Amino acid sequence: MARCSATQLGVLVLVLSTSYAVASLTVDMQLEQLRNNYVKLEQVLATKDSRLEFLEQKVQQHGNLEAQITQLVNEVNQMKTQVRRTAELELKVQRQEYLINAVHGESRSHNNVSLRQGTTQMPKSCADLKNNGHTSNGMFLIMGVKMVETVFCDFSKPTSDQNFQKWIGFADVKSSPVYFHAQRIGNYGAANTGIPFNQLRLNVGGALNPVTGVFLAPKAGRYFFAYSGLSWDSNAKVQLQMKSATVGWFKIGEAHCTPFNTFALQSILDLKQGDEIRIIHIHGVIHDRDGNNFSNFVGLLLEEDIFGC
Ligand SMILES: *[C@@H]1O[C@H](CO)[C@@H](O)[C@H](O)[C@H]1NC(C)=O
Ligand SMILES: *[C@@H]1O[C@H](CO)[C@@H](O)[C@H](O)[C@H]1NC(C)=O
Hints:
single chain; about 300 residues; alpha+beta; Jelly Rolls; 6-stranded antiparallel sheet; 5-stranded antiparallel sheet; 14 strands; rod-shaped; binds 2-acetamido-2-deoxy-beta-D-glucopyranose; Tumour_necrosis_fac-like_dom
């Protein structure tokens, strides 16, 4: 380099200063560019800011919506409860109306003979009940062959469905009660005669004649009878006898015993209206002398043939 000429040096200076000018120009431009960039950045940020604000609003609105939805759900639930209550009340009112109508109809039909003797048939099935206008499912009484029966009717099913009518059982309906409990005061020794019962504890329905000791079946059905007594100082023999419209007195059961012993008879009988029952003394003496109530004759109607007899 020591051998460089002045010209060479001048050229070098020129080159250097030119480079400096170029360099300083570039810095200015870069500054300008930076400023521009900064402005742009500010604009972008401002846009972002407003976008953010918008989003914040959205989020807030969303929160409000959530609260509104919760409130609506609550209101719907309340309405559902009210609707259910209204339906329940309607059902109650319907039931009461039905009962009132039934009671009115009942009292009318009781008071008005022409209504009782109308063409209305007793229902024999759920299908009959449906024809008569029943629509509410439930347990109903229907007319069986001989007795009143209970069935469950599901009117929501077609008549042909096997679950349309479900048989529950016989309804223990008696047109009126029949039962008695009879005892004796005093010894009884008349051979081959029906035993009279001169001390009645109960004679509901009045079917036992205490003077003759004969029970007259007031209606057809199954009856239970039992008799027990004590013999006096000899062997004794008694019988439970029955008499029907076509057959005279015949033996159902017989009991014997040695002196001062117990004899007993029991039976369950299918009787027609008008059939008769008695305890007959065959021989010996029946002991009721000291008021100890040794003789006990009881009877009761177990089930009555309400229809078909
Ligand atoms: C009984 O019912 C018949 C038939 O519905 C009716 O014509 C009659 O007026 C009623 N009688 C009474 C006393 O209600
Ligand atoms: C037998 O029955 C009658 C009538 O109920 C009663 O007065 C009497 O005291 C009874 N006899 C005994 C020993 O309990």
